[in-house]
């Protein structure tokens, strides 16, 4: 298959919703643009993608998405610079990861041109929906789900790939207080934790609700064997600064290979920040909090960008993090955001013009 | 809430599909009856259930089912006896388990009357769809999914409960050959393995495909720490007979509390079959196969009923099970099916007349 932008059938909406949107006060992921890309997998192959007005999806009650959780997604952002040029950040990494997720969920892999050319065409049609205000962006949600029918517990024979767009503000407001989990787990060895699979998120909601009731916003997941190692926070990977060293856990079959995460590792290396990718025990973090060597913790992800953590709870005790003046989080957040929004050089070649 | 059958609004289809169905040659879960029950959760509570013609479900592309896997389901069967009476098997157990699953997935629990009275009313409307042929039944699929919208990774504010009906034949045709898994895992300690959650099934499809390519039909899952203990088979719990003792693993947060499984334990106890509920190591099963004390293995579940296993693969070696004349599997399958279809006494009080 070789899809060119000129091949993609475009059906434009007759009535734009854009005038109803307050671009100065955007929430996260609740306002949707005028169009979406759709592409069906049937008869053993991905069909031609189309751009259509944003509209409901119609499914048989036996569609396997309702029963067997076959779904994967990605999260990306488009930015508009002062000259109205549109930029993406490492989009091929999202494409590759989508297929890594799909493979583990027995979903047929998507050709690169459908993803990249489809995205490009959709962003062109809805370019007015990309916010210019600092801290806002057009959140891009590519997703694939099982649309084929039947109650037999086996992979579907039909799938739907959709890209939807949501002009969005910040994911978190303010600093985040986290709970290090001692009971529940996010993923298994040999499981699907490395995939951006729907089921990974549903399983986190209840333990997160319990944490929220105790005054935390997010859970930091630990390994399911002994709850001994720090893993990730579900909506973001975790970085820990002990003295001047930035540490993050290695990716595994239980941890998402975050694009923001790996970009931060590269930025740290380039900027002379000592960075270690290694397993971190909970007790190392607790001891560092006790002796004052724990300087910072922050989450990293496309939606969350770089989210500073104000403190953590563990075994009923709360540990506050110090209020530093110059933090790695602030430095790195500005560094990566400036690259993303074309306000700085891009020494890594991560920025892609649409 | 107190839903009575007389309260349930019923909209009947104008054109039945029943004459298109070959009830002598039913597949599993691919033919659907004329009606379905639907009930929405919104504004903080479950609304009134309705029976409507079987029809597509319409959802916003941002509905959380597509993104975050919030879905749970049950599997039940209705049987029609020689006098056209309709019977269910331990339906309250399905109702209770649905809510156990929902709680773990942060889905609001469903009132008992919506489930039980809704099911009763639906079966009355579609009673002609219940097959009478031996080995066939009306497969009942109650399910709940997140219909509320938004890309924020948090529980939905709206859900949909549906009961759909599928007149069905056998789930497996013939004996099943299984692979004892050494690499992939179904569930984590502290995870959602005990819940009938969509995501648990999607994660099994790829490893099962790999097993199918090697000539097996199903995977027997083992613990994710060391792949040392036999857990379950995804679509069914597992029973192992060593000499004259029937053994099955204990339920846990990784293993589904199967209704067929616990019924079989009770039947074995009543009928003087030595039965043990305890952890079983893979090496115990392999050694029993080698020394000839392994007599039977079978799967147990609502869809699979009692499915004899012909042999298993482990570390590249295939172990065949003996061809016995009088098997526990045959005895128990007849015993439980006779109770379900009102062909025998029901000493346990499991059968419920609709």
Automatic annotation (TrEMBL), chains A, B:
It catalyses: L-leucine + 2-oxoglutarate = 4-methyl-2-oxopentanoate + L-glutamate; L-valine + 2-oxoglutarate = 3-methyl-2-oxobutanoate + L-glutamate; L-isoleucine + 2-oxoglutarate = (S)-3-methyl-2-oxopentanoate + L-glutamate. GO terms for biological process: isoleucine biosynthetic process; L-leucine biosynthetic process; L-valine biosynthetic process. Keywords: Amino-acid biosynthesis, Aminotransferase, Branched-chain amino acid biosynthesis, Pyridoxal phosphate, Transferase. Pathway: Amino-acid biosynthesis; L-leucine biosynthesis; L-leucine from 3-methyl-2-oxobutanoate: step 4/4; Amino-acid biosynthesis; L-isoleucine biosynthesis; L-isoleucine from 2-oxobutanoate: step 4/4; Amino-acid biosynthesis; L-valine biosynthesis; L-valine from pyruvate: step 4/4. Its cofactor is pyridoxal 5'-phosphate. The keyword Amino-acid biosynthesis applies. It comes from the Bacteria. Its EC number is 2.6.1.42. Acts on leucine, isoleucine and valine. Belongs to the class-IV pyridoxal-phosphate-dependent aminotransferase family. This is Branched-chain-amino-acid aminotransferase. The lineage of its organism: Bacteria, Pseudomonadati, Bacteroidota, Flavobacteriia, Flavobacteriales.
